[in-house]
Amino acid sequence: MRNDPNPLYRERWSIIYTAQVHPREAKDIAKDIGVTVSKVHTLIPRYNKMGVAAVETKGKGGRHRENMTLKEEQKLLEGFFERAAKGELVTAREIKREYEKVVRHKVAETTIYRILKKHKWRKVMPRPRHPKANTQKQKDFEENFPKLVQELEKTKDPEDDRPTLLMAQDEGRFGRISKPRRAWAPEHVRPQVPSQFVREYVYAYAAVAPEKGKMTFLVLPYSNTEMMNMFLEQVSVDFSEYFIIMQVDQAGWHTSKDLVIPKNIRLIYQPAYSPELNPVEHIWEELRENHFYNRSYKSLDNVMQDLCDGLIELESDSERLRSMTSFPHLRIVA
User: Fold this and answer.
1) How much is the pLDDT for 190?
2) What is the model's pTM?
3) What's the pLDDT score for residue 334?
4) Euclidean distance between CA atoms 249 and 254, whole angstroms
5) Beta strands 243-248; 265-269: pairing state
6) Contact, 39 vs 31, CB < 8 A?
7) Letter string b/e over residues 65-92, b meaning 16 or more CB atoms within 10 A of that residue's CB
């Protein structure tokens, strides 16, 4: 009992030893050893019948019928890392084919799912990326952002002593087209939600200052230069105590010759097809996920009401807003 290197066998010998030197009820032996009563009830009759063989027998657990070792499984999965990063592994079928080539026999799909779970793989929604996006330009923009800010600060009036505030701006379209999404439901209940395709929209214009956890917004009927002029004037007034450097995308109304930029605002244009660089996109995602799921609207007035409620809720929660929008390239300069 003392010298057996196998902890399972040592536990079994302890049960036998205790039963011999101090016979008593199985529940008391189980309590002293720290095992279940059923284990005591099973082991003692087997020992009386089989002797040592009842103790020194492998348990049911372990990898006694493994096709691959853990390292071999890990090596197999490493070959799929690059494709996984591109979102090309939609099903486990391809991994199953490669697995069967190695072990040279068929396996059940559940075998692959167990392996994926064991190595902490999970099925997630990929982050969307525009096919025309230039990854190198995006990286250069983030690295050069501090220099761009410094250059724009030089254009400030020498007598203007207002501190610089970094902001990001974007527009989001919200309307009466509804898309069903997953919802919690008890067993045997399949939810039914309204779905409609009415092409009526309003546009939310928002600008966020991640460092301060502040935001300003307008809900407007169109996305054009006239509306953008109106919104920039609103930002200029709401943050009049700052010299604002604002990151925007390259939409036509952001680069129009008719765009009127207030004196305390300068624009930095992010690379084309790069919404993932703009923190305001997280605000749109938050609104759609928490305020517009599985709903249909009778009119645009109802859409605007929910949209304004969601924006006001975010605007009043500085910590949440800061957490959602504080992108690294904006923190570097802040």
Assistant:
1) 85
2) 0.70
3) 46
4) 7
5) parallel
6) no
7) eebeeeeebeebbeeeeeeeeeeebeeb
Q: At what angle do helices 280-291 and 318-325 cross, to 10 degrees?
A: 120
Torsion 5-7-8-10 (CA) sign: positive
**Contacts for 20 with CB less than 8 Å, ≥ 6 apart:** none
**HSE of 123 in the Cβ direction (CA atoms, 13 Å)?**
5
Amino acid at 109: E
Which residues in the chain come in under a pLDDT of 50?
334
DSSP classification of residue 183: -
DSSP 91: S
Radius of gyration of the chain (CA): 32
Report d(CA 31, CA 27) in Å as an integer: 6
Enter the tokens of residue 163: 């501190």
Kindly tell me the burial class for residue 224, based on how many C-beta atoms sit within 10 Å of its own C-beta (0-12, 13-18, 19 or more).
middle
Query: Is the CA virtual torsion 155, 158, 159, 163 positive or negative?
Result: positive
Contacts of 133 (CB under 8 A, 6+ apart): 271, 272, 273, 274
CB 167 within 8 A of CB 207: yes
> What is the reported pLDDT for 333?
55
Q: Within 10 Å of residue 241's Cβ, how many Cβ atoms?
A: 9
CA angle 293, 311, 178 (to 5 degrees): 25
Q: Which residues of 107-121 are buried (b: 16+ CB within 10 A; e: fewer)?
A: eeeebbeebbeeeeb
Contact present, 152 and 245 (Cβ < 8 Å): yes
Closest by CA to 269, choosing from 136, 130, 172, 169, is: 169
Q: What residue spans of the chain are helical by DSSP H?
A: 7-21, 26-33, 37-50, 52-55, 70-78, 81-85, 93-103, 109-118, 135-153, 225-238, 252-255, 280-291, 300-315, 318-325, 328-333
Amino acid at site 282: H
pLDDT in tens, 101-137: 999 999 999 999 999 999 999 988 888 888 999 999 9
Token pair recorded at residue 170: 């974007």
